[in-house]
Amino acid sequence: MNGPIDSTVAWLTWRQLFARRRLYLAAAFSLAPFLIAVVFRLTAGDVEGSSAGFFMTLCSEIVIGTLLPLAALVFGTTAFGGEIDDGTLVYLLVKPIARWRVVVSKYIVAVACTAAVMVPSIVLPWLIVRNPDLPSTVPLAFLAAVGVASAIYCALFLALGLSTRRALVLGLLYVIGLEMIFSRTFAGLRSLSVREFALSIAETVGNTLVRFNQPTVPMSTVWTMGAILLVGTLAFSIRSLARYEVAERL
Amino acid sequence: MTAVPDVLESSVALTVAPTPTKARIELRNASRWYGNVVAVNDVSCTLGAGITGVLGPNGAGKSTVLSMIAGLLSPSAGEVLIDGHAASGRPDVYRTLALVPEREAVHGFLTGYEFVRMSARLQQLDDVDGAAARAIALVDLESAQHRRIGTYSKGMRQRIKIAGALVHDPQILLLDEPFNGMDPRQRIQMMGVMRGLAADGRVVVISSHILEELNDLATNVLVMVSGRLAASGHFREIRRLMTDRPHTFTIRSSNDRELAAALLGDASVFGVELTSGGILLRTADRGALTRHLPRTAKAAGIRLLEIRPTDESLESVFSYLVER
């Protein structure tokens, strides 16, 4: 109980994140790429020749570009947002636990859940379309990218969930606006895009060209900006919870 | 509230007497404001063992006071101390303090047992299961403990919240409208639990808008009006200090009409009314009346059957303070 993670807060967060409908949503995030891969396998003419390109596109566009930020948005904002909305956060705040430990515990669980949901979305399609052009280093590279991106996204969305009751809407605007549109349109914004960080990591770790025709962000930028985003937003969350006051009726 | 200066000035004297228990709540000139809105204004009081009721109309500042005592809200000015230390920013205070919030929301996806056990684990108790079982038994919810809280009635939710708060045997228990949704039997049972805690030397602070509940339960009251502490202490003591308001008694005797006529000559009496239930008497000097009444009755050869104050209820005191 003396480490940075409180196991009871972590357990409660895990139960919250997978309560009712979110369980189905998590299953959809996990299995959608698998179903797409099955359809590809059944319909593509030259499976052997095109599976590498298909898998790269699936992972970079569908998994990292779309499903990962959405999963992190759901888990990151719900980790605190749900309890703030319904008032149950007070049950954690009146316990002898430092508030920073509450933040860190919830953050770790949100990251673990996001990454865990994304693992099948990479591994299962790879099992469907794998061939000699797709060695196991490729899905491993994407898994490493998902791990780092989950950590940054969840820190961002956790802070958003603590800051506003419209976290889900604002987070969705961020994902669609910056991650899906502007960072692809304006090269200067790539150094702010977590999706671009993830693709750079996948390319570096897998030693394979993940994206075609577009340079990815240099790794020095990935680590610098990633660390700033992660540490900055986590520090913001810790500060926000430390100053959090229950001003309305209890 | 300047309308009742005699009560306010004496509020320190009426403050709940400190008791041998270690637990103690102190508010020292505590104020809390939001922008230009003053929610709580310069409240000072000390709460020791026993049950204290926090009363006041909506918006009087009751929940703000409770939030400040619970350390969930810092005072804008002044201090709120638990056992001599600041209440806010100290997680350790929750080893001795527990809160039952007014909001009905409890984690609906957990069972009652899981919720109470979670509270025990967060309190880092040695015997988590034993503590959870004891707390659930105390609120008489064993039969429903393995059901999801989402399926509970409002009264059951209140009781499981109380079980969660009591699981670590706190010295200080703060309850915001704890009896909401409980049926009369449950209410009586929970009042028994509160009395037991108070008798055991715990500090129990209850905010309620149902005066009858506190009338039966609270040894002392804090009356909040417009963010200020209008009065504190035992409500009968507060009533006695309201010297600008006549005391009213109902008197029954062997000859009400003759006694009424005799009492009209008493300088301490300034109103007598004959009713079907006896004499309704008003006096500004309670002490003088209690001295003169037996003598007057004896001189007139009348036997006194009953003397009953009719305006010393909590409701009467509360209405007076709020209306002023």
Low-confidence stretches of chain A: none
What portion of the residues of chain A fall into strands of 2 or more residues?
Answer: under 5%
What is the end-to-end distance of chain A?
28 Å
Q: What integer is the average pLDDT of chain A? A: 89
Question: What is the mean pLDDT of chain B?
Answer: 85
How would the global form of chain A be characterised?
Answer: globular
Helix content of chain A: over 70%
Count of alpha/pi helices of chain B: 12
**Residue windows where pLDDT falls under 50 for at least 5 positions of chain B:** 1-20
Q: Show the largest interface.
A: A-B, 31 and 35 residues
Number of domains of chain A: 1
Kindly provide the radius of gyration of chain B, computed on alpha-carbon positions and rounded to a whole number of angstroms.
Answer: 23 Å
Structure description:
The complex is a heterodimer of chains A (250) and B (324). The mean pLDDT of chain A is 89. Chain A has 250 residues and is mainly α. In chain A, helix 6 runs parallel beside helix 9. Chain A has 9 helices and no strands. By secondary structure, chain B is α/β, with parallel strands linked by helices. Chain B has 12 helices and 14 strands. Chain B has a 6-stranded mixed sheet, with helices on both faces. A 4-stranded antiparallel sheet of chain B has the order 2-1-4-5, with helices on one face. In chain B, strand 7 (172-176), helix 7 (184-199) and strand 8 (203-207) form a beta-alpha-beta unit. The longest helix of chain B has 16 residues, at 184-199. The chains are: A mainly alpha (250), B alpha/beta (324). The A-B interface holds A 1, 6-9, 11-12, 15-16, 19-20, 86-88, 90-99, 242, 245-250 and B 34, 63-64, 66-67, 70-74, 89, 91-95, 97-99, 101-103, 105-107, 109-110, 118-119, 121-124, 164, 176.
